[in-house]
Write a structure and sequence with these properties.
The structure is a homodimer. By secondary structure, chain A is α/β, with parallel strands linked by helices. Chain A has two domains: 8-116 and 309-322, 2-Layer Sandwich (Nucleotidyltransferase, domain 5); 129-304, ATPase, nucleotide binding domain (Nucleotidyltransferase, domain 5). Chain A is built from ten helices and 13 strands. Chain A has helices at residues 44-62, 99-107, 116-127, 186-190, 192-205, 211-214, 224-232, 236-260, 275-289, 310-322, and strands at residues 7-14, 18-24, 30-37, 67-75, 78-80, 85-89, 94-97, 111-115, 136-141, 145-151, 154-155, 264-268, 300-303. In chain A, strands 3-2-1-4-8 form a five-stranded mixed β-sheet, sandwiched between helices. In chain A, a hairpin with a 3-residue loop joins β1 (7-14) and β2 (18-24). The longest helix of chain A has 25 residues, at 236-260. Chain A is globular, with a radius of gyration of 21 Å. Chain A starts with 6 loop residues before the first strand and ends in a 10-residue tail after the last helix.
Amino acid sequence: MKQSQPRLYAGLDLGGTYLKCGMFDDRGVLLGKTAVPTKRERPYSEVLKDAAAAVLRLAEECANNATLTAVGVGAPGTVDGARGVIVYSNNLAWADVPVGECLEGLLRCPVRVLNDANAAALGESVCGAGRGYENVVLLTLGTGVGSGIVLNGTIYAGKCSAGAEIGHTTVRRVGMRCTCGRRGCLEAYASASALLRRARAGMTRDPKSRLWSLCHGTPEALDGKLFFEGVRAGDGTAASVLKHYLGDLAAGIVNVANVFRPDIILLGGGICAEKDLLLPPLRRILDKEIFGGNRRANVELDVAELGNDAGLYGAVAYVRTSLDITKNGGRL
Amino acid sequence: MKQSQPRLYAGLDLGGTYLKCGMFDDRGVLLGKTAVPTKRERPYSEVLKDAAAAVLRLAEECANNATLTAVGVGAPGTVDGARGVIVYSNNLAWADVPVGECLEGLLRCPVRVLNDANAAALGESVCGAGRGYENVVLLTLGTGVGSGIVLNGTIYAGKCSAGAEIGHTTVRRVGMRCTCGRRGCLEAYASASALLRRARAGMTRDPKSRLWSLCHGTPEALDGKLFFEGVRAGDGTAASVLKHYLGDLAAGIVNVANVFRPDIILLGGGICAEKDLLLPPLRRILDKEIFGGNRRANVELDVAELGNDAGLYGAVAYVRTSLDITKNGGRL
């Protein structure tokens, strides 16, 4: 009788604003999703109770009589995976929170916790644009530059999972101050926020830029979508800003290629919707600058596929692998 | 009877100038070393014949009646480890040379080939200053900046072993042209050659520098030893050159720490004999700039221990691991 019950796996994404949950079947198919507000000002036990309730509700909705087999949790910040503890999360304002233990008590099934950027990289490598590759590096261009590294099909995060901070590698030693205190970090030049900051500075220097009309005269209203509209409309300032931005982003990409020589480098984040404007120039620089040329040991460059769901896919892949449920060499 | 014969393992280092060989016993103890000129202008088969002869001679010298069990070979350039082929070596001027097959024919035992920088990193991680650590990155400061990456006790070299080129990561986007064609590579600022180039430029700007008398008025005669004599003698120009050099080197070290968060970063190369002048300022910058601070997930910084023998130790560790001879989780 037990045999006929479908197995379910939940992926949770503990964001500072929303708790997102995805329910997957045995074959790794996403059956359904839900999101509830985090309300992070509450005690963590309340937040985790809501998360558990969301998981159970979604499991019920996705399949009657289903067994919740395991739950993977992606969380912002430093995670001690072995103990299932969020060591520190600036985003959630949590320190030393035993997420795994709490959720296992509420959900009565095994729970594994990992950093959300690592979860996204694993998700893309298992089910997204990195499918079929051994070594995958994901750079997510948002407020900062997030990154996740998958080597030999497994997340590499370094000591205490504190590594994989590619956004905080200096590419301009005498450059701009980064939020981390160093100068010239990739994040300070290649994040989506940095692109908009540079676009606003460009507008200020060029009163005739079409960007002014696109944002109705309010530089603060300029977002990624409007900026790329400006580029497509042939605005010279927007084109120039994009060119310089891509030069810095490419420097980071070539650095990653030379250090890891991965099979593929993936770019994530909202601005990757504009991939036709981003990928061709970045690929040209990569092919030209990669050490020893890009023919013999080709590094591919593409955009991520799973968007905000990458972390859910990755969290489930992680818990399934770490519980050794899967057969195929520990991969989904 | 066979049981009583001691087992020997040889490490070979195929340098552009010398073929070096080390003989190790079953417990990983270096029993003896030898070196013969490479004479690389000859056909590769001649070079490999000499290498094999050196191995056999040394085996005979180190132990009577010994069985040569396996040979590990470190070689400069791109190596296809699975096939035992040197795909391309600028240093030896070899392309697609089946080193493994040739030496197995001559030596009648299993041979494995790997890149020499990777061999050095593995050697340090197994038998040298990285002993006991899981994740070790070695930066070798010489003509260039070589690097080897050991993650989870195993060499990470990326696709076709073309990765681990940390020397060719940009740290100054608008900086000096590197030999690889990019601008501002770590190698262009942090190699031992770069230090001397900067010292010579400093002397030229400062006719009163003590470096002039140390090199008897000939800047070309300035070497690392004389430069550090200048620093120790209190020469202001030498001190200033060193300070700026260490700033660039530290940028590379912090980048490595943020990307890999390894247990330890090791510096190799001749100038590391001056470790009392190098390590304290580098450690200060590392502690200050590493992402999130260096307390919770401390990255150590030290100099390598095995010098030019590191590659021999590493080559033997590699062949023993890949033949699964060792019991202790594949480690010596």
